[in-house]
């Protein structure tokens, strides 16, 4: 693995340990070069309560690797989380900078009704 990826995973592990301590439901985000993925994971980490990504049929039609796509994923995951009865989450950015697509997804999820 490259040093850059190892450092990102170390940041992610540190965040996840803190969130496990707090026993918080978390909104976990993964950003690849072409797609965005978001999951709402239970407090103990054993169950995915809601998920959305640019691979979903309704989001697949347009561009999948830009800020607009990230906003759509944020709104969709918020809608699905609310349907599952979750409104309060902790944001797990998986070691990525809170900037660009990650920030757009978080802002859209807030607009969709999630609180974090």
From TrEMBL:
Keywords linked to the UniProt accession: Ribonucleoprotein, Ribosomal protein, RNA-binding, rRNA-binding
InterPro entries membership: Ribosomal_L18, Ribosomal_uL18_bac-type, Ribosomal_uL18_bac/plant/anim
Pfam families: Ribosomal_L18p
GO molecular function: 5S rRNA binding; structural constituent of ribosome
GO cellular component: cytosolic large ribosomal subunit
Superkingdom field: Bacteria
GO biological process: translation
Family: Belongs to the universal ribosomal protein uL18 family.
Function: This is one of the proteins that bind and probably mediate the attachment of the 5S RNA into the large ribosomal subunit, where it forms part of the central protuberance.
Subunit annotation: Part of the 50S ribosomal subunit; part of the 5S rRNA/L5/L18/L25 subcomplex. Contacts the 5S and 23S rRNAs.
Entry protein name: Large ribosomal subunit protein uL18
């Amino acid at each position: 693995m490259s040093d850059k990826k190892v450092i990102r995973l170390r940041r992610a592990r540190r965040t996840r340990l803190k969130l496990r301590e707090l026993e918080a439901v978390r909104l976990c985000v993964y950003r690849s070069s072409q797609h965005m993925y978001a999951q709402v994971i239970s407090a103990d980490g054993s169950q995915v309560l809601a998920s959305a990504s640019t691979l979903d049929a309704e989001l697949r039609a347009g561009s999948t690797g830009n800020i607009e796509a990230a906003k759509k994923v944020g709104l969709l995951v918020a809608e699905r989380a609310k349907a599952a009865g979750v409104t309060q989450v902790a944001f797990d950015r998986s070691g990525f900078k809170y900037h660009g697509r990650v920030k757009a997804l978080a802002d859209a999820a807030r607009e969709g009704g999630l609180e974090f």
